[in-house]
Amino acid sequence: MSSVLRPASTGHDPSTAGAYRPVSSHLAIAPPVSVVIPAMNEAENLPYVFKTLPDWIHEVVLVDGNSTDNTVEVARELWPDVKVVEQRGKGKGDALITGFQACTGDIIVMVDADGSADGQEIVSYVSALVSGADFAKGSRFANGGGTDDMTFIRRLGNRVLCAVVNRKFGARYTDLCYGYNAFWRHCLDKIDLDCTGFEVETLMNIRVVKAGLRVQEIPSHEYLRIHGTSNLRAVRDGLRVLRVILQERSNRRALRSRSRTHSPLLDTVRGKVS
Protein backbone atom coordinates (compact mmCIF):
# COMPACT_ATOMS: atom_id res chain seq x y z
CA MET A 1 0.00 0.00 0.00
CA SER A 2 1.56 3.26 -1.09
CA SER A 3 1.98 6.08 1.35
CA VAL A 4 -0.30 9.08 1.01
CA LEU A 5 1.24 11.06 3.84
CA ARG A 6 2.77 14.00 2.02
CA PRO A 7 4.27 17.43 2.67
CA ALA A 8 1.57 20.06 2.83
CA SER A 9 1.69 22.49 -0.05
CA THR A 10 2.62 26.06 0.80
CA GLY A 11 0.68 27.42 -2.18
CA HIS A 12 -2.95 27.10 -3.25
CA ASP A 13 -3.66 24.71 -6.10
CA PRO A 14 -7.37 24.73 -7.10
CA SER A 15 -7.06 21.29 -8.70
CA THR A 16 -6.10 19.69 -5.40
CA ALA A 17 -8.11 21.86 -3.04
CA GLY A 18 -9.96 19.64 -0.58
CA ALA A 19 -8.11 16.53 -1.69
CA TYR A 20 -5.75 16.67 1.28
CA ARG A 21 -6.41 17.48 4.91
CA PRO A 22 -3.68 19.47 6.69
CA VAL A 23 -2.38 17.55 9.70
CA SER A 24 0.46 19.90 10.59
CA SER A 25 2.52 22.62 8.93
CA HIS A 26 4.54 19.84 7.24
CA LEU A 27 2.07 17.05 6.58
CA ALA A 28 -1.27 16.46 4.89
CA ILE A 29 -3.29 13.30 4.25
CA ALA A 30 -5.77 12.18 1.63
CA PRO A 31 -7.75 9.37 3.34
CA PRO A 32 -10.75 10.55 5.39
CA VAL A 33 -10.50 9.53 9.06
CA SER A 34 -13.50 8.48 11.16
CA VAL A 35 -13.31 8.46 14.97
CA VAL A 36 -15.68 6.11 16.81
CA ILE A 37 -16.52 6.90 20.43
CA PRO A 38 -18.75 4.46 22.36
CA ALA A 39 -20.36 6.32 25.25
CA MET A 40 -22.88 5.70 28.00
CA ASN A 41 -23.46 8.47 30.55
CA GLU A 42 -20.20 10.24 29.70
CA ALA A 43 -21.52 13.81 29.45
CA GLU A 44 -18.99 15.10 31.99
CA ASN A 45 -16.04 13.49 30.20
CA LEU A 46 -16.87 14.37 26.61
CA PRO A 47 -15.53 17.95 26.81
CA TYR A 48 -12.09 16.53 27.62
CA VAL A 49 -12.36 13.94 24.87
CA PHE A 50 -13.47 16.32 22.12
CA LYS A 51 -10.98 19.01 23.16
CA THR A 52 -8.06 16.79 22.12
CA LEU A 53 -9.50 15.60 18.80
CA PRO A 54 -7.71 17.13 15.79
CA ASP A 55 -9.87 19.33 13.57
CA TRP A 56 -8.70 17.60 10.38
CA ILE A 57 -10.59 14.36 11.01
CA HIS A 58 -13.41 13.56 8.60
CA GLU A 59 -16.12 12.62 11.10
CA VAL A 60 -16.87 11.71 14.70
CA VAL A 61 -19.29 8.84 15.28
CA LEU A 62 -20.71 8.76 18.80
CA VAL A 63 -22.41 5.48 19.71
CA ASP A 64 -24.84 6.21 22.54
CA GLY A 65 -25.47 3.24 24.80
CA ASN A 66 -28.90 4.45 26.01
CA SER A 67 -27.47 7.19 28.21
CA THR A 68 -29.68 8.64 30.93
CA ASP A 69 -27.71 11.88 31.14
CA ASN A 70 -27.20 14.51 28.41
CA THR A 71 -24.36 12.72 26.65
CA VAL A 72 -25.87 13.22 23.19
CA GLU A 73 -26.68 16.90 23.74
CA VAL A 74 -23.18 17.63 25.01
CA ALA A 75 -21.63 15.83 22.03
CA ARG A 76 -23.69 17.90 19.58
CA GLU A 77 -22.73 21.13 21.31
CA LEU A 78 -19.04 20.24 21.24
CA TRP A 79 -18.96 18.86 17.68
CA PRO A 80 -21.98 20.11 15.70
CA ASP A 81 -21.42 17.66 12.84
CA VAL A 82 -21.14 14.63 15.14
CA LYS A 83 -22.93 11.53 13.84
CA VAL A 84 -24.94 10.04 16.70
CA VAL A 85 -25.86 6.36 16.45
CA GLU A 86 -28.12 4.64 18.97
CA GLN A 87 -26.86 1.33 20.30
CA ARG A 88 -29.56 -1.32 20.22
CA GLY A 89 -27.58 -4.05 21.98
CA LYS A 90 -25.38 -3.94 25.07
CA GLY A 91 -21.65 -3.98 25.74
CA LYS A 92 -18.58 -2.22 24.39
CA GLY A 93 -18.05 -4.72 21.60
CA ASP A 94 -21.59 -4.27 20.36
CA ALA A 95 -21.19 -0.46 20.52
CA LEU A 96 -17.97 -0.51 18.49
CA ILE A 97 -19.40 -2.81 15.83
CA THR A 98 -22.40 -0.47 15.54
CA GLY A 99 -20.08 2.51 15.20
CA PHE A 100 -17.85 0.84 12.62
CA GLN A 101 -20.87 0.15 10.43
CA ALA A 102 -21.80 3.85 10.50
CA CYS A 103 -18.34 5.10 9.47
CA THR A 104 -17.71 6.53 6.02
CA GLY A 105 -13.95 7.16 6.37
CA ASP A 106 -11.19 5.01 4.89
CA ILE A 107 -9.42 4.98 8.26
CA ILE A 108 -11.25 4.20 11.51
CA VAL A 109 -9.97 5.18 14.95
CA MET A 110 -11.55 3.85 18.14
CA VAL A 111 -11.36 6.09 21.22
CA ASP A 112 -12.81 5.65 24.72
CA ALA A 113 -15.18 8.30 26.06
CA ASP A 114 -13.81 8.47 29.61
CA GLY A 115 -11.08 11.02 28.90
CA SER A 116 -8.25 8.51 29.29
CA ALA A 117 -7.03 8.85 25.69
CA ASP A 118 -5.25 11.82 24.11
CA GLY A 119 -6.75 12.58 20.71
CA GLN A 120 -3.55 14.28 19.63
CA GLU A 121 -1.99 10.82 19.38
CA ILE A 122 -4.26 10.05 16.41
CA VAL A 123 -1.67 11.51 14.06
CA SER A 124 0.77 8.77 15.10
CA TYR A 125 -1.79 6.07 14.32
CA VAL A 126 -2.67 7.58 10.95
CA SER A 127 1.00 8.01 10.08
CA ALA A 128 1.59 4.30 10.69
CA LEU A 129 -1.35 3.34 8.50
CA VAL A 130 -0.50 5.53 5.51
CA SER A 131 3.09 4.31 5.77
CA GLY A 132 2.07 0.70 5.17
CA ALA A 133 0.44 -0.81 8.26
CA ASP A 134 -3.05 -2.30 8.11
CA PHE A 135 -3.71 -2.06 11.83
CA ALA A 136 -2.17 0.48 14.24
CA LYS A 137 -2.41 -0.94 17.75
CA GLY A 138 -2.04 1.30 20.77
CA SER A 139 0.28 0.05 23.51
CA ARG A 140 0.76 1.41 27.01
CA PHE A 141 3.86 -0.76 27.48
CA ALA A 142 5.75 -0.05 24.26
CA ASN A 143 8.73 2.27 24.61
CA GLY A 144 7.25 5.75 25.04
CA GLY A 145 3.86 4.59 26.30
CA GLY A 146 2.46 4.57 29.82
CA THR A 147 -0.60 4.32 32.03
CA ASP A 148 -1.97 6.14 35.06
CA ASP A 149 -5.00 3.89 35.37
CA MET A 150 -4.04 0.27 35.91
CA THR A 151 -4.09 -1.69 39.15
CA PHE A 152 -1.53 -4.38 39.90
CA ILE A 153 -4.10 -7.12 39.23
CA ARG A 154 -5.08 -5.66 35.85
CA ARG A 155 -1.43 -5.16 34.89
CA LEU A 156 -0.57 -8.74 35.83
CA GLY A 157 -3.60 -10.13 34.02
CA ASN A 158 -2.85 -8.13 30.91
CA ARG A 159 0.75 -9.32 30.90
CA VAL A 160 -0.20 -12.98 31.31
CA LEU A 161 -2.94 -12.88 28.68
CA CYS A 162 -0.67 -11.00 26.29
CA ALA A 163 2.02 -13.67 26.71
CA VAL A 164 -0.52 -16.40 25.96
CA VAL A 165 -1.67 -14.67 22.76
CA ASN A 166 1.90 -14.09 21.62
CA ARG A 167 2.77 -17.73 22.17
CA LYS A 168 -0.37 -19.26 20.70
CA PHE A 169 -0.80 -16.98 17.69
CA GLY A 170 2.75 -15.91 16.89
CA ALA A 171 2.15 -12.26 17.78
CA ARG A 172 4.66 -9.88 19.34
CA TYR A 173 2.38 -7.62 21.32
CA THR A 174 3.42 -5.64 24.38
CA ASP A 175 -0.19 -4.81 25.30
CA LEU A 176 -3.40 -6.74 24.74
CA CYS A 177 -6.43 -5.14 26.38
CA TYR A 178 -6.26 -1.52 25.22
CA GLY A 179 -9.06 0.30 23.44
CA TYR A 180 -7.11 2.89 21.45
CA ASN A 181 -6.54 1.49 17.97
CA ALA A 182 -6.84 2.50 14.31
CA PHE A 183 -7.14 0.55 11.09
CA TRP A 184 -8.02 0.70 7.42
CA ARG A 185 -11.70 0.04 6.78
CA HIS A 186 -10.93 -3.06 4.68
CA CYS A 187 -9.71 -4.83 7.82
CA LEU A 188 -13.31 -5.23 9.02
CA ASP A 189 -14.00 -7.70 6.23
CA LYS A 190 -11.12 -9.88 7.38
CA ILE A 191 -11.64 -9.93 11.15
CA ASP A 192 -15.46 -10.27 11.22
CA LEU A 193 -16.10 -9.10 14.79
CA ASP A 194 -18.79 -11.00 16.68
CA CYS A 195 -18.49 -10.22 20.40
CA THR A 196 -20.32 -7.81 22.68
CA GLY A 197 -18.13 -7.02 25.70
CA PHE A 198 -14.75 -5.62 26.73
CA GLU A 199 -13.08 -8.62 25.13
CA VAL A 200 -13.53 -6.92 21.74
CA GLU A 201 -10.00 -5.46 21.76
CA THR A 202 -8.46 -8.88 22.37
CA LEU A 203 -10.56 -10.44 19.62
CA MET A 204 -9.44 -7.75 17.17
CA ASN A 205 -5.79 -8.21 18.11
CA ILE A 206 -5.99 -11.97 17.60
CA ARG A 207 -7.88 -11.87 14.34
CA VAL A 208 -5.64 -9.30 12.65
CA VAL A 209 -2.74 -11.67 13.30
CA LYS A 210 -4.69 -14.68 12.06
CA ALA A 211 -5.63 -12.72 8.93
CA GLY A 212 -1.98 -11.94 8.21
CA LEU A 213 -2.50 -8.17 8.42
CA ARG A 214 0.41 -5.83 9.00
CA VAL A 215 0.33 -4.57 12.58
CA GLN A 216 2.33 -1.72 14.07
CA GLU A 217 2.22 -0.87 17.76
CA ILE A 218 1.89 2.80 18.67
CA PRO A 219 3.18 3.98 22.08
CA SER A 220 0.24 5.55 23.90
CA HIS A 221 -0.33 7.08 27.32
CA GLU A 222 -3.49 6.15 29.20
CA TYR A 223 -4.71 8.78 31.65
CA LEU A 224 -7.04 8.40 34.60
CA ARG A 225 -10.78 8.41 33.95
CA ILE A 226 -11.85 11.96 34.74
CA HIS A 227 -15.42 11.49 36.01
CA GLY A 228 -17.53 8.47 36.93
CA THR A 229 -16.58 4.84 37.33
CA SER A 230 -15.67 2.24 34.74
CA ASN A 231 -17.90 -0.70 33.93
CA LEU A 232 -14.78 -2.85 33.55
CA ARG A 233 -14.46 -5.66 36.11
CA ALA A 234 -10.98 -7.16 36.20
CA VAL A 235 -11.87 -10.77 37.08
CA ARG A 236 -15.13 -11.04 35.16
CA ASP A 237 -13.81 -9.42 32.00
CA GLY A 238 -10.44 -11.14 32.33
CA LEU A 239 -12.24 -14.47 32.18
CA ARG A 240 -14.14 -13.32 29.10
CA VAL A 241 -10.86 -12.40 27.44
CA LEU A 242 -9.41 -15.82 28.31
CA ARG A 243 -12.49 -17.50 26.86
CA VAL A 244 -12.03 -15.60 23.59
CA ILE A 245 -8.37 -16.66 23.42
CA LEU A 246 -9.27 -20.32 23.93
CA GLN A 247 -12.09 -20.17 21.38
CA GLU A 248 -9.89 -18.56 18.75
CA ARG A 249 -7.15 -21.11 19.41
CA SER A 250 -9.68 -23.92 19.07
CA ASN A 251 -11.02 -22.44 15.82
CA ARG A 252 -7.50 -22.21 14.46
CA ARG A 253 -6.86 -25.88 15.15
CA ALA A 254 -10.17 -26.82 13.52
CA LEU A 255 -9.31 -24.85 10.38
CA ARG A 256 -5.90 -26.51 10.15
CA SER A 257 -7.46 -29.95 10.55
CA ARG A 258 -10.09 -29.16 7.92
CA SER A 259 -7.51 -27.85 5.45
CA ARG A 260 -5.45 -31.03 5.83
CA THR A 261 -8.48 -33.26 5.44
CA HIS A 262 -9.78 -31.45 2.35
CA SER A 263 -6.52 -30.48 0.68
CA PRO A 264 -6.55 -30.77 -3.16
CA LEU A 265 -3.40 -32.90 -3.06
CA LEU A 266 -4.99 -35.36 -0.65
CA ASP A 267 -8.15 -35.51 -2.75
CA THR A 268 -6.03 -36.28 -5.83
CA VAL A 269 -4.24 -39.11 -4.04
CA ARG A 270 -7.55 -40.53 -2.85
CA GLY A 271 -8.88 -40.43 -6.41
CA LYS A 272 -5.90 -42.47 -7.66
CA VAL A 273 -6.28 -45.00 -4.88
CA SER A 274 -9.95 -45.50 -5.54
From TrEMBL:
Membrane spanning stretches: none
Residue ranges of the region described as Disordered: 255-274
Superkingdom field: Bacteria
Glycosyltransferase 2-like domain ranges (all copies): 34-185
Entry-linked Pfam families: Glycos_transf_2 (PF00535)
Annotated Gene3D superfamilies: Spore Coat Polysaccharide Biosynthesis Protein SpsA, Chain A
UniProt family annotation: Belongs to the glycosyltransferase 2 family.
Name this polypeptide is given: Glycosyltransferase 2-like domain-containing protein
Species this chain originates from: Streptomyces glaucus
